[in-house]
């Protein structure tokens, strides 16, 4: 049996219920993954939990910004090469690529495909802009995860809109 006592001071993990998860039998039919019974969260505890998550997220962002070796595995564009070599399927890379280092990753066979997230969001005609080596719209972080279906999603201008 595996015991998951990973919480500070031996506290039970929190949940919306006291009901434990049913033990999971692994594919070999022998190993049983057993889960620590959770503790049901009280309503008055919720603000504290939300604050804990807020602080944890901020710490993680700060650690990543400081380029902690424990957080970031892709400090150099070549650090995924061992994974690329070991993996037999199509290998996609993402995270901070622009036109130039995307092209470089493909030319050096470090990936089969380069994913563009933020640049594509802000540039609906990104392939055309890359082809022409045209200037890019800057993305606006403030509108990344808002619920509006248009603002920050489909309102960035196409090239001809700027002409
Ligand atoms: C506003 C926003 C929404 C995203 N939504 C998704 C998503 O739904 N699924 C997903 O796999 N990645 C999502 N991503 C992550 C991107 O696909 C990409 O991996 C990430 O932005 C890093 O690449 P980049 O440096 O080119 O932006 C999102 C990123 C942003 C900024």
Automatic annotation (TrEMBL):
Superkingdom of the organism of origin: Eukaryota
- Pfam families linked: Oxidored_FMN
Q: Reply yes or no: does the keyword Flavoprotein apply.
A: yes
List the biased-composition ranges (Polar residues): 1-19
Q: Which cofactor does it need?
A: FMN
The uppermost taxa in this organism's lineage are: Eukaryota, Viridiplantae, Streptophyta, Embryophyta, Tracheophyta
What are the UniProt keywords, alphabetically?
Flavoprotein, FMN, NADP
- List the residue ranges of the region (Disordered): 1-23
Q: Which InterPro entries match?
A: Aldolase_TIM, OxRdtase_FMN_N, Oye-like
Q: Residue limits of the NADH:flavin oxidoreductase/NADH oxidase N-terminal domain?
A: 80-136
Name the record gives this protein: NADH:flavin oxidoreductase/NADH oxidase N-terminal domain-containing protein
Q: Which GO terms describe its molecular function?
A: FMN binding; oxidoreductase activity
Which species is listed as the source? Fagus sylvatica (Beechnut)
Q: Which SUPFAM superfamilies match?
A: FMN-linked oxidoreductases
Which protein family is named in the record? Belongs to the NADH:flavin oxidoreductase/NADH oxidase family.
């Amino acid at each position: 049996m595996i015991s998951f006592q990973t919480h500070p001071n031996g506290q039970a993990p929190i949940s919306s219920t006291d009901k434990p998860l049913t033990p999971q039998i692994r594919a070999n039919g022998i190993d049983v993954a057993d889960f620590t019974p959770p503790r049901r969260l009280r309503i008055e505890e919720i603000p504290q939990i939300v604050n804990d998550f807020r602080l944890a997220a901020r710490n993680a962002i700060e650690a990543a910004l400081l380029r902690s070796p424990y957080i970031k595995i892709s400090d150099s564009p070549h650090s995924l090469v061992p994974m690329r070599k070991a993996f037999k399927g199509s290998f996609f890379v993402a995270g901070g690529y622009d036109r130039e280092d995307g092209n470089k990753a493909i030319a050096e066979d470090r990936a089969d495909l380069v994913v563009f997230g933020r640049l594509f969001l802000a540039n609906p005609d990104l392939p055309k802009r890359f082809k022409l080596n045209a200037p890019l719209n800057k993305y606006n972080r403030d509108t990344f995860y808002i619920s509006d279906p248009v603002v920050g999603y489909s309102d960035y201008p196409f090239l001809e809109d700027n002409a």
